[in-house]
Amino acid sequence: MATIALDRRDARIAVGTTMDRALLSGFLERDRLLAAYAICDLDDREFGRTRWGIAQEDGAVTALVLEYGGPSPQPLFVMGQDDGVSAILRDVIRPRLAFVAALPDSLGAVPRHYRLDPGPQVVRMWVDAERFQPVVDPDVGALRSSDVSELNRLYRLGFGSWLAGDAVAEGVYFGIRVNGHLVAAAGTHVIGRDARIAVVGNVLTQPEYRGRGYAEATTAAVTAELLRFCDHVVLNVHADNPPALNAYRRLGYVEHARFEERLAHRTGSIWSDLAEALRRRLAPRKESQST
Question: What average pLDDT does the structure give for the chain?
């Protein structure tokens, strides 16, 4: 690990970057259900896109920040003690704009370096083979990479995102068609085959077909397939979405933790200062337009 000299307040803490997967896994496995995304990112397919900052005290890892590469805002996963998280964000992992996921306790260090936008609380749910309650629906079918165009047409209705063909080929996706048209689908965000854990995501039903149990049925099919080779399957749902929470509970998913997902703007940078000045300048205009 490349260490960085810190000031006297943090003299006991060493921070730096590491690509030691065994070291990272040992820390993340302390709470594998919360750290599911990060654990999956240790697999070869994802690892090259990641950057890991850790804090150590007396040779033991006390905090971790994962930065996943890609377009801004970069996803950040934060885990561990407050002072270690703060030191990492100050000296090692320093994106200008990030989308931070952290438990409320760990989030406390983030505002020292970032201005956080408001955001809903997220529920991390999980299931294993013992708890899983399968749903058999003959209309649900597996999707392949050749279905990616249909999937993208569906996802643009709710996500505005684009899914690559290899994501379907290397993931697990199921859908429901009505009159030959794909109207509901569920899939995976990431799979950690080595760690035997996966994250369900990309669950969407076309608006006019909602309320028919399609999301529950497709999620059940994805979960059943993942549990063939995973010990744990997790998913996220907004805390203010009772119908989705109840649907996942019927499948056997249980709540593990509630955490925060926030858009974070680096403070003390020229871009942050400009963005804040623009926000303040535009705010009065918005107010005057609403009166």
Answer: 89
